[in-house]
Amino acid sequence: MFHFLSGFSSFISRVLWGEISSPSLFDTIKNAPEPVVTMNFGLLGGQVAFVNPTNLDMAHLIDTLDGEPNGRRGETGLRFFVGGNFLSTRAKDDAENTALTHHHLLSSLLTRPADYIENTHQAMHLFLQDGRREISLLELATVPLRNTVARGLFNIESIPFDLHQALQGFSGLIQDKLDSFGKTLSVKLMTAYYSWFFSFIPRYQQTKTDYLVAAEKFLAQQSDQILQCFHTLMEHDDTGALPENLSGITNALARFIAQRVKETKPELAKDKDQFLDYLAAMTEADLQPYLHEATIKTLPILPLPGDMIVIPVSSALTELARNQELFLQLRHELQQRKFAEKNSEQKRDDIMQDREHNGLLHRIYLESLRRDFQQKTPEHLEAETIILRYSEYGVAVKDKQGEIVTQVPPGTLIAILNALPRFDPKVWPNPEKFDPSRYISDDDKSLENCVKSIFFYGKRKCPANVITEFIFQTFIADLVMNYDLRLIDGNDLGLAKIELSPVSDLDHGVELNTTRLSESVSN
């Protein structure tokens, strides 16, 4: 009887989900000779096309899918948690035709490198001012980096505690599904097709409630600042003319509400002066309806996507704390750059020079992006990193020469295995090794472009791509110049800690055998 029930249960599982639990599923997909492998996952999972992006024209594929009304169906779960259409989940020809407008608006708020360099300094100072010397690796990376993004977007010193906790709860749910390829895929499929089911899972429902409560409270707290941003528009210049546009307003809430005014009051959008006059005269009563819109209520989650900077920072800190030779060489190079003596504008130019000449910290940044979390094996990272899109109409997949490789049929969920190119042993010898020297001779930036492709697929590339390295270099430089690092429980991401030992001014002047260090790091 037991064997019968077990076999019957297995049969039902295959009917509903196909071979999604097969331990060889990922290897079958990864080792397939063709770049696109289409499989069926039963009545519930449906048809999924797995894409290895290594030699494909991903910009064409992503732009085509983002152009379909349900192209971002794979992100439906995010709509459940934030209570509405978050700006990144909207297809560019959706009913309101606003996705690219919102995307470009967010991007414009994240293109001020000098400001974010200063924000990083301030966030680091605030976080470390209590004198703690032994800190969770993830906390050390997450809290100041979220606050860096929040400072830049909302003009606040730090994220309110309840909102930070709500974001942390959401982040925790994301980490929960990263145990195996089958589990990751099943959660992705549930998110795409059955996100309503999350309402029946108490922890998921509580996470949603916590976010919405914290978001509404945060928006209410920001209402005065939003109105103040609009009221500055009443300040005319010497000619008595109103400002040409809203570019002087760097508060994301004010800018997005202004955009929503344009979308909800098209008669104002036709007359620039009338539009600016309306904003300048807005009252609390005028503002309230916008604060309760689903789209606006999703904006407090914006610091969470900034967590992607946490990944390379955590990877770099892990390696620097383990590798004393690399750590000392980086400190020496930062001294040579006189990085600590420069203001934010000068640091921006310095980082651009370091990037152009493949300097050490730039190479550490690239290797941190490629290697991802050091506490995870390449095999796990390859299987966990899945970007979802959906094709309602079917789509042609092209290679980098523009030739059609295959045709994905209509009604197919597309799973892009985005980590595969970063661990291909034909491109990256010993891909599990953290090795910044890979990029020393990368004069044509081909390796760099491969690593940074995570930011650049299609028109709606990551809005934070401009500022990410500026934040990374500033964060790492601040720690390396001011502290010695020691890693504790470094093999477990959840337990890993960094011990910070302040260095004296005398320590900064230490002479290094740079030839020996260079040889050691290269080898």
Task: Give a description of the structure.
With 523 residues, the chain is α+β, with helices and mostly antiparallel strands. It has 2 domains: 32-200 and 303-522, Cytochrome p450; 214-300, no CATH class. It is built from 25 helices and 9 strands. It has helices spanning 2-17, 25-30, 42-45, 58-66, 76-82, 99-108, 113-128, 137-154, 161-176, 181-193, 202-231, 252-264, 266-269, 272-280, 284-291, 294-297, 310-322, 324-337, 344-356, 360-371, 378-384, 446-452, 468-482, 505-508, 514-522, and strands at residues 36-40, 47-51, 134-136, 386-391, 395-398, 404-408, 412-417, 483-488, 497-502. Strands 1-2-7-4 form a 4-stranded mixed beta sheet, with helices on both faces. The chain has a 3-stranded antiparallel beta sheet with strand order 3-9-8. A two-stranded antiparallel sheet has the order 5-6. Strand 8 (483-488) and strand 9 form a beta hairpin. Helix 9 (161-176) packs across helix 11 (202-231).
What general outline do the C-alpha atoms trace? globular
Gyration radius, in Å: 24 Å
What is the structural class? alpha+beta
CATH topological fold name of the largest domain:
Cytochrome p450
* Main sheet overview: 4 strands, mixed
Helix content: 40-55%
> Span from first to last CA?
61 Å
| CATH class value of the largest domain | Mainly Alpha
Count of DSSP E strands?
9
Number of helices: 25
Widest sheet: strand ordering: 1-2-7-4
CATH architecture descriptor of the largest domain: Orthogonal Bundle
Strand content: 5-15%
How many discrete domains? Answer: 2
CATH H-tier superfamily of the largest domain: Cytochrome P450
Mean pLDDT: 85
The unreliable regions are 237-242, 508-523
Family: Belongs to the cytochrome P450 family.
GO molecular function: heme binding; iron ion binding; monooxygenase activity; oxidoreductase activity, acting on paired donors, with incorporation or reduction of molecular oxygen
Keywords: Heme, Iron, Metal-binding
InterPro entries: CYP450_sterol_14alpha_dmase (IPR050529), Cyt_P450 (IPR001128), Cyt_P450_sf (IPR036396)
